[in-house]
Amino acid sequence: MKVRNFLMVGLVLTVLFPFAANAVDWTAVGSTGAIDEGSLGVYAANDAALFFATGTTGNIISYFNVVNNSGSDTPPWTTLDLTSKDGSASGNVTAVLYRVPKCSGSAIAVCSALSSETSTTPVCTSCSTGQLDFANNAYFIKVFVDRSATTASPTLYGLRLR
Length: 162
What we know:
This protein is mainly beta. The chain is 13% helix and 44% strand. The chain contains one helix and eleven strands; from the N terminus they run H-E-E-E-E-E-E-E-E-E-E-E.
């Protein structure tokens, strides 16, 4: 009886494991992006957050390489989520997903998500990516954190492909 139960559990796990593996989202926190050299004098980071250094304005540009961790050339991801805050017309956060066709080098925008001006606490905004194809493309996300007044506090907290 124990052997039969053991085999049944093994069979169930064997059947369900591939589905669970494909359900893995891609994620990154805001502080882990590669900062554009033009943004080096204005950015600050703390824990998960990417934001402006005290007293600075302008643009922060950060790049995130999208690594396919799904186990399939066509992961089930169809949505880009941006977790950010801005709460002001003087600042915003924008995340743009790009695809780079194999042997091309040209970046093509897939979708963009924009922060909400109505919230001073972190919120999610999203855009639809359609089906991603890692067999024929590479992908990256470029994030723009902008502010024109030091009273604004736009902040990037995280990105998710789901």
